[in-house]
Amino acid sequence: MGTKCHPTADWIFACVKRKFPHLSLGTVYRNLNILKEQGKIQELSFGSTFDRFDGNPQPHYHFICEKCGRVFDVDLPLEDHLNKKAERILHFKVNYHRLEFFGKCGNCQ
Amino acid sequence: MGTKCHPTADWIFACVKRKFPHLSLGTVYRNLNILKEQGKIQELSFGSTFDRFDGNPQPHYHFICEKCGRVFDVDLPLEDHLNKKAERILHFKVNYHRLEFFGKCGNCQ
DNA sequence: ATATCTGCAAATGGTTTGCGGAGGA
DNA sequence: TCCTCCGCAAACCATTTGCAGATAT
Lengths: 109, 109
Prior knowledge:
Chain A has helices at about 10-20, 25-35, 80-90; strands at about 40-45, 50-55, 60-65, 70-75, 95-105. Chain A is an alpha+beta fold. Chain A is extended and about 50 Å long. At the A-B interface, helix 1, strand 1, strand 2, strand 3 and strand 4 of A face helix 1, strand 1, strand 2, strand 3 and strand 4 of B. Chain A binds a DNA duplex through helix 2.
């Protein structure tokens, strides 16, 4: 939590191992999962272990069911003004953004 | 492209194999990657093979460098009205959303 | 003929797990 | 003693890749 760098498990392993040379990678993963369950950290991934593909290459938004993992298109107009807002804050060039909604789908609620 | 179900590679494999029983999974992955490079489909993943973790469990937005993969926080106010908009379209309950900006970071541009 | 694509099977690599032992209460 | 956590190494599994044969131009 003391870093802003959004670390990978491996990065954490390398760091902590400097102080605890016997540390094993399994322990890092185990504790990351515990912290995640406790809501103290979040994992930045698409939510599933599989990659999913979308036959529509145009940018558009998605809804992901937290229970069954199904993915739906969301036909909202793109909020492209957000790119400019982010650029002003970051001072980086923003090419596009992706927006995903999470909740429970019709079958699962 | 004829489905709206955002398929996994495995789902495509099972479908196409019905028509081409000798099809192999490697071929599916190879062609998905070609289509992706050609911009005809998109892959729905966080962009890297590693999972990344965030010590801040509060919802907030991220910027991901398309070149080096580094992740930055974006201190924009949450656009929570979008949840309601998505609910009206989908008729599903939306709990939260995630927003990621893509571009090149200061080091990479 | 030659360049590309395929099936197959093995390799890859990040993540998970089983097990026996160490440490704490 | 009992429970929890750990290191270690093997297992897991989605994805990639090397190779030799098939296909297409």
